[in-house]
Amino acid sequence: MLDNSILNVALPTIGRELQASATALQWVTGVYSVVFGGLMLALSAVADRFGRRNVMLLGLVLLGLTSLATAFVTTAGQLIAVRAAMGVAAAMTTPGSLALAFRLFADDRLRVRAMPVISTVGLVGLAVGPIAGGFVLAVAPWQSLLLVNVPIAAVAFAAIRIGIPADRLDELHRDPVDIWGAVLGTAAIASALIAPALFVEAGAGTWFPWASVAVTIAFAAAFAWREHSFRCPLLDLRLIASPLVSSGLAFKASANLAVAGLGYLVALQLQLDWGWTPAQAALGMLPQVIVLVAGGALIGVLVGKLGLNRAAWLSASAVVVGLAVYALLGRFGYVWIAFSLALVAAGMRVVGVVAGTNVM
Fold first, then answer.
1. Number of compact structural domains in the chain
2. Residue 238 to residues 61, 181, 224, 229, 233: CA-CA distances in angstroms?
3. Largest CB tally within 10 Å, which of 60, 112, 180, 212?
4. Do 85 and 154 have their domain in common?
């Protein structure tokens, strides 16, 4: 989360130095999400069969190497290629992270204590990224924002090698990898993530974006048929058929998209439209950070008073209202931007807990 959000504040600087178009800047962050989301399901299956620890270690090596390559980037196309490789690394490291945490904390009581910490770390990365990026840009080139991944990957690699036991043969899945399911699932997720960008670039009045929607539906239908008929599916569709699981996943995905999209737009507006410096834009993101980090203390009280269902709908409504406030009033003053950032972050904070509870 930190890796992608930290670039939001740096996009105008990257655009000037690399002479990148608005479309290219969109793909600097977008290609990471497309590759990450598209490959996560397939690489999860690979990790189940070849070892979650092994795949995560390889992913950390790839993350370090691709981050180091940022120092040699001279064009927007090269940066997009590097970001795509980082997406592959993220897809290799993310699926096994929770499983390795469970292996590290064998006692159930320790796991219960560890889960909120893991969740908070992710949210802090999402929130702190733009602020850290803004202040780093005041004293260092934009490449340093990604070069910071090199020591982080090295420390994580060493910690996993030393602190987490190696994969045992009895833990590995012996079923064959569903290659066609992996291809169809990756294509469905990637095309679903690409479609909104095509609507922005080409407009809803052209045929190309709608064709991408049709392709997404076709791939999704083919993936569902494959998983239903294959004896060793990548994904048990019966889990998603559960109303609690499907609603939890939908809430979580929508809230994540809202927070990430709002942060991207606000960072560009403050700098390109209003002329703020990267450091000033970083301070402008503080309402989101404060709510995401400090809001956890109020979640238990809210859920206890309202119950899971009411808390879920209230938090989802907060996200929608926050986005509407920004869309309608964000151009009239920073106070409206701050209000929308705080409201969306508050909704996201509650949604994360409620959705996670429903899914588990």
1. 2
2. 35, 16, 11, 13, 11
3. 60
4. yes
